[in-house]
Amino acid sequence: MPRISRRTLLTGLGAGALAAATGCTTRRSGPETTDGLATGASPSPSPVPPVTVNAATGPVVVPGAPMRVVVLDTDVLDSALTLGITPVGAALPGRDTSYPEYWPTSRTAGIRLVGPAGAPDLPTVRALRPDLILSNQTRDGDRYEQLREIAPTVLTQTAGAPWKADFQLHAQALSREAAAAAFAGAYQKHAGQVAQALAAAKPSGRKVSLVRFVEGGGIRLFGRQSFPGTVLSDAQVGRPDAQNVDQSDFEIPPDQLARADGDLLLYATYGDPELSGANATLASPGWQALGAVKGHRAFPVDDQLWFQGIGYTGANYVLDELQRFLGA
To answer: Could you give the C-alpha distances from 284 to 131, 255, 279, 280, in angstroms and in order?
Structure first.
């Protein structure tokens, strides 16, 4: 199946969400001189009061409407960009060399790479003079004290399955709560539309398998408690028995590849295809024996979207691709 074309960023999200994202952060006073007479000078923004956010580490006071934001994982990258804020710096997973392609380069070109997620370069972060840092405890819990010496730092517990609640926390820290509500509502509507389209199409098989080849981490299957697992659930799509579990992901040995089968099999590779085992597995008799492979229903997907695009923009694109894969 050829790669589908990307729709414009706000397709399915609505212009109202964009307006909320860009128009709710500051109030501007009217132009006037010291004697009260209007002038042609540009109006100055009224300061937005600080916000207290209940992060995983406890209450954190952050500046109102922060603009110099550093994000240290892919979920907070999606959150910030979705809410109309281009971070000044971002960390990417260590094997990634570029920002996710589901975002246009016009949105990511100005972002400074601050090192790998889980091991950011703190002097580089400090040099960017952030007024807010966003991440999670899984990635950066062990360097939280160092980070908050640089700027107020808001951490969620983890990334992945709780992405919707995490997005609301990110929105609070970014003073974009009205926009967040608009994006969440648009996504729920989109997911419902996809579910209806799939029900109307009545595909012969709707149990979708999710497989990821990870450099240094083997062959992984993904359960319901993962980002792509929750999106499939929102679209009312079933899962193979081996993956219909309340887990995020788990590794399997090559001799258990039968557990990767499904009516539709979607797979991605993180890192080098040779070092991750993807090349060897895809050429193996065990892979070729899978029903989805023999039936030509196994397709590669973009790892940065399906497994790292943890947020509402990523989820909307996943819904689009899922609908097309299932022929609805």
So the answer is: 51, 10, 9, 6
Ranges in the chain, pLDDT < 50: 1-12, 14-16, 18-41
pTM of the full predicted structure? 0.88
Output the CA–CA distances (angstroms, integers) from residue 212 to 99, 228, 247, 278, 310, in the order listed.
19, 11, 15, 9, 15
Q: What kind and span of H or E run contains 218?
A: strand 218-222
Phi, psi for residue 175 in degrees, rounded to 5: 60, 40
80 closest CA partner among 23, 133, 121, 119: 133
DSSP string, 60-128: EEE-SS--SEEE-SHHHHHHHHHTT---SEEEE-TT--S--TTS-HHHHTTPEEEEETTS--HHHHHHT
Residue in this structure with the two tokens 């240290």, named with its chain if needed: 72
Which residues neighbour 232 within 8 Å (Cβ) at sequence distance 6 or greater? 208, 210, 239, 322
Q: Do 52 and 61 contact (CB within 8 A), yes or no?
A: yes
Q: What pLDDT is attached to residue 203?
A: 66
Q: Which two tokens stand for residue 41?
A: 């000078």
